[in-house]
Amino acid sequence: MSTSNLLQLTLLIPVLALVGIQLTARWENVREAISLIAASTLFFTVTQLYQPMLDGQVIGAYWLDILPGLALSFRVEPLGLMFALVASFLWIITTLYAIGYMRGHGEKNQARFFGLFAVSIGAVMGIAFAENLFTLFIFYEVLTLCTYPLVTHAGTDKARAGGRVYLGILLGTSVGFFLLAIITTWLLAGTLSFKEGGIFSPGTSLTLLSVLLGLFVFGVGKAAIMPFHRWLPAAMVAPTPVSALLHAVAVVKAGVFVLLKICLLIFGLDTLQAIPATEWLLYLAGISILLASIIALRQQNLKKRLAYSTVSQLGYITLGALLATSAGMTGSALHIVMHAFGKITLFFCAGAILVAAHKTEVHQLRGLGRQMPVTMTAFLVASLCIIGIPPTGGTWSKWYLMLGTFEAQQWILMGLLMISSLLSIAYLLPIPLRAFFSRSEQDADVTGGPDATATSVIKEAPLPSLIALGITATGCIYLLLFPDAFYQLIKAGI
Questions:
Q1: Which helix (H) or strand (E) element contains residue 67?
Q2: Is the C or the N end of the chain the one with fewer CB within 10 Å?
């Protein structure tokens, strides 16, 4: 099969999965098998594009012209392939996790969940391989619309309220800012195609480019830059597999990936460095990192603490892209990968705790390590990855981001990154440490007798969920030792 057909197959597989899931909705074993087979097939297909692209082969696909010079078309480039590899692999793991979670938690409308999940991954493939901003925008909006029913999956008033915030902010920013930025880019450059080094001519007004950069940064609401971040905590009313989709597999990663791609292939590093607005947008990203870390520290609900942690970590990726240095871009791209594995593990653990122990608050997790040792060990590993210290892959991305601030001589931002890392230690590490080394509230009230050890009985989440979080936690460590596959893609793209 030609590489062009392989590229188009990456867009077709999720659609076929949706059809298969809906046709077999009554038979959960068949339906879930179709989801796993489709996810595995997609990942295999994406891997087949890796070596041809590194060998210099141009891989593209054209669908149709909308206007002269404006086409719905696709092309494989290094950063897009990196994003597609991460998303397609994590679709397999999240599906495995969701099988255990959805059954264990007795969730309704499971066929709809798996079907919309497949559509979301299809939208991610479209974003990853978009040849131009128009194509990217179409799939960006599809991703918003198909994840809205997932956010409101529970059907409660709280879920619908969270869904309204989710949809309102993401559609509002994309139509109000992102679409305007795309139209302005078309008028200024005469093209929307991504191009190495950027698409603007040297004589383009830097003031106009400053306004345009601001429109892009605020318009890509999925990157959750403050003050357009509230949709992310609001969406935590969704089931945990949806939270994993939002934070690690698709939505927020699509946002920061889009910003990274725009900075690199629409503006270009040289132009980005010359734009006056880059400086204050850098500090906005830095403030977002710091404020979100402080807010995370104050959250007692586990999923909300992880949500604000995500807002902070997305700021790292935005900051790295706006530094407009080789090290900053490398750190930004690497952090998309490292954060994906770390944060999906944390949400998997949060869901496992809910299903097995029915706990949602941080203070309830004391002593839980005795009941759920595998889950809390995975939580510890993932926390280290988010913080950015060995033995996890987050070490690499945080190192390059710090190096990027050094290259750009942004000493204040370097300090902000250090402070944020200390805050992330404060809001993440105590959770697994207290789970293992503190007694639970129930244990503390027991004075003796046969009930004294009742809470120490091991009761982990369903096996599929446990396997999934074990794989992603192992991935956090694996990426410290073997980051080369992603590093080569990033260096080829930068």
A1: strand 60-67
A2: N
Closest CA to 159 of 229, 79, 239: 239
Residue 88 contacts residue 7 (beta carbons within 8 Å): no
User: What are the DSSP calls for 451-472, one per residue?
Assistant: GGGGGGS--PPPHHHHHHHHHH
> Of all residues in the chain, what percent carry a pLDDT higher than 90?
72
For residue 451, the number of C-alpha atoms closer than 13 Å in the C-beta half-sphere is 6
Best CA proximity match to 358, nearest among 281, 442, 438: 442
Closest residue by Cα to residue 154 from 105, 212, 206, 221: 105
Residues 277-296 pLDDT 10s:
999 999 999 999 999 999 99
**CB-side exposure of 120: number of CA atoms within 13 Å?**
33
- Model pLDDT for residues 177-236, shown as the tens digit of each residue: 999 999 999 999 989 999 999 999 988 899 999 999 999 999 999 988 988 889 888 888
Distances (CA, A) of 197 to 83, 202, 203: 20, 12, 15
pTM for the full model?
A: 0.93
Burial environment of residue 471 by CB neighbours within 10 A (0 to 12, 13 to 18, 19 or more):
buried
Residue 101 structure tokens: 């979670």
Best CA proximity match to 401, nearest among 305, 494, 275, 313: 313
Q: Is 130 helix (H, G, I), strand (E, B) or coil?
A: strand
pLDDT tens-digit readout, 356-411:
888 989 999 999 998 999 999 999 999 999 999 999 999 999 999 999 999 999 99
Give the pLDDT confidence score for residue 203 in this predicted structure: 86
> Which residue type is seen at 169?
I
Q: What is the CA radius of gyration of the chain?
A: 22
Whether the predicted pLDDT of 456 surpasses 60: no
d(CA 116, CA 18): 7
